[in-house]
TrEMBL record:
The keyword S-adenosyl-L-methionine does not apply. Carbamylation allows a single lysine to coordinate two divalent metal cations. Residues 52-442 form the Amidohydrolase-related domain. This is Dihydropyrimidinase. Pfam families: Amidohydro_1 (PF01979). It comes from Catellatospora bangladeshensis.
């Protein structure tokens, strides 16, 4: 079975050129200069004239069905991966969770039970380590060796939930140094934040904006610097800072990278577009829609400008979504009268490709850098390259045809995520995902979904190929 994507401009992390893409079965058979494209009898043809053809995007930070804040993230693996596909994302890496007091293999098994047979796109897992002890350290080895889980997320935030102290973090980093895995860090000083939260509540400051005000940028920067130091002490353990939002934290990452350290970071669209004042500070309880951690930052400071610059310089190597949706009704409302009880998270798995493309439209990113940050580097960073993240012979035929001349408006009425609101309601997007192919199967075309639950397969990941 052949599929030919014809007439488009293929964009890769190294540039753009006119090329036709031939798919045989689930894999890419070849890329051809248009004048050299072979005639393939019986091939299904997709006309990509005046459109970009890019690798299916890879979102390395999602939380489908995450239990958090007394409820569960509102997208299942089924609804969330369908929405991902609509947005041009053909691979996700979600976070399996070992909660404090639980065993790591049990956490992984629980995530397989949620995801297996339910996904529309391919998926892998990182492991959240909610407790670092002798047993869980041993389990890290077996996850790397036998389960294809080669990255582990630790938390310097959320005391009593996922928090690890510095000793635990150092031990996990030493283990990762031995087995070749990557440590992902939620870098916020959760102990100090809890003090600020208590003080704010005792002053009667209960509205959503206080979520952001009690998580100052300096406490993200302090934790980022501390994580970088601990990784150095552990022997330059590869360290990946998740959902980086503040200029000061970015400065710490850039300084480490300038000295040749294996330190990497991602940011997310919410930090590139949304702000503490405009969203978190919306009237009444409305701001709860944008409660996430790290929080949205003040527009009075140059965070967004610096994050865009970091994307250009590669001090920010990846854009993920940290997709963690909660409905406003009944879920975000758990925090009415107490911002600290609002479940943390924003849904956006459907919009990353579009929102980052606006950076191209606005002259902030090159086309190549768009593809590199949403597809190629994520795949390399987390052991999926060259199977994912690139259009090359032998790679999985995960392909997006993107129409730069079409327009779309983001909103709850049209999105496919299981959310009763949109973090980007009314955003006008110049460009549109036109066709989405996953392992040779057309999942989305003409705005219609043609996929089937269970098409998505579990990805056993290798070690990172992005490290120095
Ligand atoms: N980010 C967020 O607010 N929720 C998801 C959990 C996490 O990534 O810390
Ligand atoms: Zn986090
Ligand atoms: Zn997250």
């Amino acid at each position: 079975m052949y599929l030919l994507i014809k007439g488009g401009t293929v964009v890769s992390a190294s540039g753009a050129q006119p090329a036709d893409v031939l798919v045989e079965g689930e894999r890419i058979a070849g890329l051809f200069a248009p004048e050299h494209t072979p005639a393939v009898e019986g091939a299904q043809v997709i006309d990509a004239t005046a459109k970009y053809v890019i690798p299916g995007a890879v979102d390395v930070h999602t939380h489908m069905e995450l239990p958090f804040g007394g409820t569960f993230a509102s997208d299942t693996f089924e609804s969330g991966t369908r929405a991902a596909a609509f947005g041009g994302t053909t691979t996700i890496i979600d976070f399996a969770v070992q909660r404090t007091g639980e065993r790591v293999p049990d956490g992984l098994a629980a995530w397989h039970a949620k995801a297996d047979g339910n996904c529309h796109v391919d998926y892998g897992f990182h492991m959240i380590m909610g407790g670092v002890d002798d047993e869980s350290l041993k389990a890290m080895d077996s996850l790397v060796e036998s389960e294809g889980v080669t990255s582990f997320k630790l938390f310097m935030a959320y005391p009593g939930v996922f928090y690890s102290d510095d000793g635990q973090i150092l031990r996990a980093m030493q283990k990762a140094r031995e087995n070749g895995s990557v440590i992902m860090m939620h870098a916020e000083n959760g102990i100090a934040i809890d003090v600020l939260i208590g003080q704010a509540l005792s002053r009667g400051e209960t509205e959503p904006i206080h979520h952001g005000l009690t998580r100052p940028a300096e406490l993200e920067a302090e934790a980022t610097r501390r994580a970088i130091s601990l990784a150095e002490v552990a022997g330059d353990t590869p360290l990946y800072i998740v959902h980086l939002s503040a200029s000061q934290a970015l400065e710490a990452v850039a300084a480490a990278r300038d000295t040749g350290r294996n330190v990497f970071a991602e940011t997310c669209p919410q930090y590139l577009y949304l702000t503490l004042e405009d969203q978190l500070g919306a009237p009444g309880f409305e701001g709860a829609k944008w409660v996430c951690s790290t929080p949205l930052r003040s527009k009075a400071e140059p965070h967004r400008r610096d994050l865009w610059r970091g994307l250009r310089t590669n001090d920010l190597a990846v854009v993920s979504t940290d997709h963690c949706p909660f409905c406003f009704k009944e879920q975000k409302e758990l925090g009415l009268g107490d911002f600290s009880k609002i479940p943390n998270g924003i849904g956006g798995v459907e919009h990353r490709v579009d929102l980052l493309y606006q950076g191209v439209v606005d002259g902030k990113l090159s086309l190549a850098r768009w593809v590199e940050t949403i597809a190629t580097t994520p795949a390399r960073m987390f052991g999926l390259y060259p199977r994912k993240g690139v259009l090359a012979p032998g790679s999985d035929a995960d392909i997006v045809v993107y129409d730069p001349n079409a327009r779309t408006t983001i909103g709850v009425a049209t999105h496919h995520m299981n959310m009763d609101h949109s973090a980007y309601e009314g955003y006008q997007i110049a460009g549109k995902v036109d066709t989405v192919v996953s392992r040779g199967t057309v999942l989305v075309s003409g705005g219609e979904f043609h996929g089937r639950k269970g098409h998505g397969r579990y990805l056993r990941r290798g070690l990172s190929t992005y490290l120095l």
